[in-house]
Amino acid sequence: MTEMVVAARASAPAAGRWGAAPPQELLERLKDYGQEGAFAFWDELGPEERDHLIRDIESLDLPRIDRIIRCSLRSQGAPVPTVEPVPESSVSTVDDRTPEDKERWWRRGLRAISEGKLAVVLLAGGQGTRLGSSDPKGCFSIGLPSRKSLFQLQAERILCIQKLAAQCTDAPGSTVQIHWYIMTSPFTDEATRKFFETHRYFGLEPNQVTFFQQGTIPCVSPDGRFIMETPYKVAKAPDGNGGVYAALKSKRLLDDMASKGVKYVDCYGVDNVLVRVADPTFLGYFIDRGVSAAAKVVRKAYPQEKVGVFVQRGRGGPLSVVEYSEMDAAMTTEINQTTGRLRYCWSNVCLHMFTLDFLNQVTNSLEKDSM
Questions:
Q1: Is residue 331 assigned to a domain?
Q2: Are residues 41 and 150 in the same domain?
Q3: Residues 163, 29: one domain?
Q4: In the beta sheet, which residues pair with residue 41?
Q5: 283, 137 contact by CB (below 8 A)
Q6: CA 357 to chain centre
Q7: Of 206, 271, 286, 303, which has fewest CB within 10 angstroms of its CB?
Q8: 244: left (phi > 0), else alpha (psi -120 to 50), else beta?
Q9: Which domain holds residue 360?
């Protein structure tokens, strides 16, 4: 995206209630963050446009945005911090487990689902631009004979798990309901809601589906300056999958989950046709391990595959993800001499499991950082 340049009008508009200059206090705030360029076209704006620009800027959390921009600029061209491969003890390969283990996890997961302890969060804020569509990704049909969309495939998986979990209850004929929280963006929210309404929620009950919008952040130039969509509007984009934490907090959805008795949250991305939504085996394993967060991983197919990989930050440090664009050739191709596999081989495919307590801790820490 490039900055927009607009030709000056032939005659200057009336000053309006803001006068000939922008509000001094707001201008000084923007100068503190190096963003006074947002007022570059003030003299060419009409009264209503000036009002729109003022409201637009006042709606921005400037301290938070500045921290994000500075962090991003610092990371550009910076070497990857010292990392280690994920310890083998941190990865459990399902195929290597005994049938008894897998059966135990499956049943434990189904039991937790039957007790209403699992909620599902879908990250569905993106448009299918790279698929040649401006519709939400979840509306996309991948060419199956059934012509089912991604949303329908995932809804039907939830319906299937609900039926299986109902068989684990002590009351014959009882029903199980998994609540599905779907994160949209300002660009996909209306279309997503209409798609579900048109398709009658694919057999799910409307009250078990909650839509919520992720936030947006300003688009910035390579030097960190706001890009203007128009002379009176800052260009904005969805704040990415990581925006789910702030969105869950601001919409009080974690409180909603707690009121429903939810203890665990399955979180995944919409553009995975093979996703096992609300996977009982994954949930059972997660509960069995007693951890706060876990992720499904897939072994990289080849060194140059464009996927981020899980790493350990320093010896004994926390696990995190290094994006493929951050990995140099040596790191990408390095071989573990013991296993014969790539040393950094466990790719992030956006399939996560969290405890509700963990999500509350993360969102509370974000809230403190923004104060």
A1: no
A2: no
A3: no
A4: none
A5: no
A6: 19
A7: 206
A8: alpha
A9: 92-294+350-369
| Beta strands 216-218 and 236-238, pairing class | antiparallel
Torsion angle (degrees, nearest 10) of CA 45, 50, 52, 58: 140
134 & 248 share domain: yes
Triad 162, 168, 171: Cα angle to 5°: 100
Tell which phi-psi region holds residue 370, choosing left (phi > 0), alpha (psi between -120 and 50) or beta.
alpha
How far lies 159's CA from each of 154, 179, 180, 206, in Å? 9, 11, 11, 13
The DSSP letter of residue 226 is B
Below-70 pLDDT ranges, the chain: 1-20, 77-80, 127-134, 171-172, 367-371
Do the beta carbons of residue 280 and residue 162 sit within 8 Å?
Answer: no
Alpha-carbon span 161 to 179, nearest angstrom: 12
Question: Got the DSSP string for 287-336?
Answer: HHHT-SEEEEEEE-SSTT----EEEEESTT--EEEE-GGG--HHHHH-B-
Amino acid 228 reads M
Q: Which residues of 123-154 are buried (b: 16+ CB within 10 A; e: fewer)?
A: bbbbbbeeeeeebbbbbbeeeeeeebbbbbbb
C-alpha closest to that of 71 among 205, 213, 224: 224
Q: Does 178 share its domain with 238?
A: yes
Q: Phi and psi at residue 278, in whole multiples of 5°?
A: 55, 45
CATH of the domain at 137: 3.90.550.10
Distance CA 37, CA 252 (A): 35
Percent of the residues in the chain that have a pLDDT greater than 90, as a whole number: 67
Average pLDDT of the residues of the chain: 88
pLDDT at 5: 33
202 and 105 share one domain = yes
Structural domain contains residue 312: no
* One domain for residues 108 and 182: yes
Model pTM?
0.86
Residues 97 and 55 in one domain: no
Which residue(s) pair with 66 in the sheet? none
| 244 falls within a domain | yes
Number of structural domains the chain divides into? 2
Residue 168: what pLDDT?
84
